[in-house]
Amino acid sequence: MPDLIAQGSLPQNRWRRPLAAGERIVVGRECGSWSVSWDRFLSRQHVELIWRDGKLTVKRLTSASNPIYFAGRAEQEFELRPGEHFVIGDTSFMLAGDRAEAAVDSQQPIEERTFASHDLRRIRFRNPDQRLDVLTRLPDVISGSLDDTDLFMRLVNMLLAGISRADTVALVRFEAHGDEPGTIEALHWDRRHMTGDAFHPSQSLVREAVRGGQSVLHVWSGRLNADGPVFTLSDTADWAFCTPIHGAACSGWAVYVAGKFIGERTTGAVSLDPNAPEDSRDLRDDLRFTELVAHTISALRQAQYLQRQQATLSQFFAPAVLHAITNQDAEVVLAPRETEVSVLFCDLRGFSLTSERNADDLLGLLKRVSKALGVMTHHILEQGGVFGDFQGDAAMGFWGWPLAQQDKVERACQAALAIRRQFQAAAPMPDHPLADFQVGIGLATGNAVAGRIGTEDQVKVTVFGPLVNRASRLEGMTKLLHAPILLDATTASIVRAHVPPSVARCRRIAIVRPYGMDQSIEVSELLPPACEYPELTDDNLKTYEQALDAFLAGRWSESLELLYQVPPKDRVKDFLTVYIVEHNRTPPTNWNGIIPLSSKR
Question: What's the domain range around 86?
Fold first, then answer.
């Protein structure tokens, strides 16, 4: 696969890009990674390129203002072969045919030196302003790259600009294979002057630097044997050094730099022309600069890698969990443990009916259901909760883990009311994705096991125990009791004691024994504040609870009279009213105040 090299009138106006077979490429001033932004004579989209069958087809686009010169003539369309070039404006485009292949070194370097980082720190920089300019641009180069290929190109160009004595710079990757020699891949490379020579990095130099984790310099003879093999980047290279880039995000990466001596080389592994000025005789400042660049690349890539990893993990972990595992040992944080939590179970109502109506548009139905479930998860996470699981058209969240939350009940209630509020707001709008849906929400507080739970094959971060079943049962009861949000006794008592009425209100509804369970539950309803839900005043709630007290004490006639004083719009009162009427206003024998439920829902 060949490369196309673009070279403008200034040394820094340059790039080298690989050409993939059959791919249509457009080059111009505004063409992404194929932009030639430095040349005003190029149009925004100027020329079309296609590499196929060993030839590059070059075609001038109709949008192009200026001609393309090939072999001294203006051409509209032509074929380019490796080693040939064409010109647009002040920029020359050359087709380099051979890609990189690491060479086996048959000729040993006459000098070799390994440099530890602490040794290089004592070296003073030549041209510190130029070096600083390169280093300060590195964060933008890495963050602004379109992809890894674009990143490699930008880094190589920047290193060429920062290492004035380098003829060639490459970003390489070494991959070890046990006891085998390993493989070397050139991620990208470029040289200061356009030539058609192939790229042949020294295998032994790259291998030694990456495996040893330190910069290594090789110096070869100034003249090569004409019959000998190429053992570095080009026949004109007298020295090369390789600096590894450490870190998981840059595994096996290294910077490879090569150049030639000025005049006759002196002895000493880092000496150049003895007649040159003193500050140009030593390669160590180039080595130190390259190490600084390598360290900076490693740190920025690692940060970028962690950001991407966190973005990926955010689809699976709540922000509270991500924060915890970022600052502590993940194994410890995620280990299952018993703790006090508040669990919210939220189920979507109206799904069956809506699915029947939208049987011919299942993708549209899925989009609407996803929107509904998204409302639930959004408010769970917004209140600092942990999303536990999807169960069909229901969602479960919890508070109090991985870190204890003293206000977990208030947070859970805020999330429940926000979910109710958003669905109710959408109800009168027929074109809204949530219009046909309602929700039932159950909230329970107590001890449960939270953490990484599952089997050897599959795990998830969730909460486990009877408390979860209680929250689920409460959610199911919302249909029977006609209340959107139900609480268990523990949650309700905390709401009454610690949540101000301006945030949420609470009323006891009844004591019930859920279907299939032996223990009874005192069930309460969570309501919005009076200013948000004026249909039921605080006096109305007080009257209902007086009716409940009379009901529990067996004074059913008194209870019924009080229930009639509650506004007719309140459907919750129908639960007690119907039960009293069905039993002819007379409590059963051995009445204990508990209403057995005949079904789960």
Answer: 3-96
Candidates 222, 232, 226, 149; CA nearest to 191 is 232
pLDDT per residue as tens digits for the range 275-321: 444 444 468 888 888 888 888 888 877 776 766 666 555 555 666 77
Structure-derived torsion over alpha carbons of residues 454, 460, 462, 464, reported in degrees to the nearest 10: -10
Residues 126 and 271 occupy one common structural domain: yes
Structure tokens, 539: 């006096």
Transcribe 210-223 into DSSP letters: HHHTSEEEEE--SS
pLDDT tens digit sequence for 65-112: 999 999 888 999 999 988 888 999 999 898 886 555 555 554 577 777
In a domain, 583, yes or no: no
Q: Which residues pair with 35 in a beta bridge?
A: 28
The helix or strand, by DSSP H or E, that contains position 184, with its residue range, turns out to be strand 180-191
> Pick from 479, 499, 519: which residue ends a domain?
499
User: Are residues 231 and 120 part of one domain?
Assistant: yes
Is 184 domain-assigned?
A: yes
Across 211-235, b (16+ Cβ under 10 Å) vs e yields eeebbbbbbbeeebeeeeebbbbbe
Under 8 Å between Cβ of 418 and 381: no
Q: pTM here?
A: 0.54
Measure the CA–CA gap between 482 and 444, rounded to whole angstroms: 18
CB-based contacts of 465, cutoff 8 Å, min separation 6: 447, 448, 449
Question: Quick count: other Cβ atoms within 10 Å of Cβ 59?
Answer: 16
- Report the alpha-carbon distance of residue 201 to residue 234 in Å, rounded: 8
Contacts of 458 (CB under 8 A, 6+ apart): none
Name the residue type at position 434: L
Question: Three-class SS of residue 532?
Answer: coil
Distance CA(71)–CA(145), nearest Å, equals 35
Nearest to 96, CA basis, from 159, 15, 151, 36:
15
As a whole-number percent, the residues of the chain with pLDDT over 70 amount to 82
Q: Are 498 and 414 in contact (CB under 8 A)?
A: no
- Kindly give the interhelix angle for 284-313 and 319-327, rounded to the nearest 10 degrees: 140
Q: Which residue type occupies 247?
A: G
pLDDT higher at 413 or 145:
413
Q: Same structural domain for residues 92 and 115? A: no
As given in the structure block, the two tokens for residue 365 are: 């139905």
How many domains does one find in the chain? 3
Note whether residue 551 is domain-resident: no
Residue 41 belongs to a domain with what CATH number? 2.60.200.20
Per-residue model confidence as pLDDT tens digits over 196-212: 566 778 888 998 999 88
Token digits of residue 127: 């041209």
| 598 is a domain residue | no
Residue 263 near residue 280 (C-beta atoms within 8 A): no
Regarding whether 388 and 292 lie in a shared domain, the answer is no
Cα first-last separation, the chain: 66
Q: Using CA atoms, how far apart are residues 280 and 276, in angstroms rounded to an integer?
A: 7
Cα 114 to Cα 167: distance, rounded to the nearest angstrom: 21
How many distinct helices (H) and strands (E) make up the chain? 15, 25
- Strand pairing class (85-88; 91-96): antiparallel
Token pair, residue 586, equals: 């007379």
Beta-carbon contacts of residue 229 (< 8 Å; ≥ 6 apart): 103, 104, 106, 107
Interatomic CA distance for residues 227 and 401, integer angstroms: 72
